[in-house]
Amino acid sequence: MQHHPNYWRVLNTFVRNSLVREMAFRGNFLLEIVTRSFWFAAQIVLFDLIYGNVRSINGWSQFEFLAFLATGMIINTLIEALFMPNCANFSELIRTGNLDFVLLKPIDTQFLISFEKLDLGTLSHLVLSGSLLAYSVTRLGQPFDLTAAILYVSLIGVSVAFFYSLMVILASTSIWFGRNQGLYDFWFYITIFARYPREIYAGSPAGEILRGVFTYVVPILLVVTVPAQTLIDKTLRPSWLTAVMLAAAMVGLLVSRLVFQWSHRSYRRASS
Q1: Residues 104-156: tens digit of each pLDDT
Q2: Residues 6+ apart with CB under 8 A from 210
Q3: What is the DSSP string of 208-272?
Q4: How many angstroms separate the CA atoms of 75 and 67, rounded?
Q5: Which of 21, 181, 247, 271 has the fewest other C-beta atoms within 10 Å?
Q6: Buried b vs exposed e over 141-176: b needs ≥16 C-beta within 10 Å?
Q7: Does residue 39 lie in a domain region?
Q8: How many structural domains compose the chain?
């Protein structure tokens, strides 16, 4: 009889193992929290200084931008906590030959590689970013709306799915390149554009080119802007940009799965 693994049970085991690792190195866990808190405070101070001299930046007021900033922090925290350690370790599995042991396990290889190690120290940053989001929305005078909250959380999930698909595609190239640190640098370079709202890039020829490429070709500018605008926009009507973002996430997941399976078939085991 064929055995089908219980993925929720396996994921729960991964969470417990990650918690044990964090508690075994409490000093590192606390240091990571302190470091991220310092970075968080630096971001707040920086934009407080900027908005001390201007009222808005291309239509984004101070607290609207802080809501955007908090949204970006939430998305990046989820990516860095759930997927970054595993995808970064993929090339090491190939180099050492330990990927052979992963392939022998009776579970989907992509699932195992994506979720085996969770960075719970990074996940603690959600407390800070969530607090900033709540503060910003409160200062904007936005009343709580359940529909807006559900739509916002759903779009956060879509954004995480898009970034995850991009990360899997980059990680899969380790099969052919062996080490692909340059591609991970590319990940940080390209995602830096998502740190600012889409409207900021308007007004100059170079900015318009960037806005077009990162809206319709690789929609990096939508994954933070669309959820943030959904939360602070009183109309709460999904725009055509929301449709572009949803389509990009779906296509990204499909392409990343195909690329991962292709790389899987191209892998030559260490024993072969």
Answers
A1: 788 888 888 888 888 777 777 888 999 999 999 988 887 777 888 888 999 99
A2: 193, 201
A3: HHHHHIIIIIS-TTHHHHHHHHHHH-TT----HHHHHHHHHHHHHHHHHHHHHHHHHHH---TT-
A4: 13
A5: 271
A6: ebeeeeebeebbeebbebbbbbbbbbbbbbbbbbbe
A7: no
A8: 1
Q: Cα(51)–Cα(225) distance, rounded to whole angstroms? A: 19
**Residue 160, in any domain of the structure:** yes
Rounded to whole angstroms, the Cα distance separating 143 from 74 reads: 21
Q: How far is CA 114 from the centre of its chain?
A: 13
Predicted TM-score of the model (pTM): 0.86
Supply the Cα-derived Rg of the chain in whole angstroms: 20
Would you say residue 88 lies in a domain?
Answer: yes
Taking a C-beta distance cutoff of 8 angstroms, is the pair 249, 158 a contact?
A: yes
If you average pLDDT over residues 93-99, what whole number do you get?
76
Per the structure, the complete domain to which residue 167 belongs is given by 56-266
CA distance 137 to 232: 7
Distance from chain centroid for Cα 46: 23
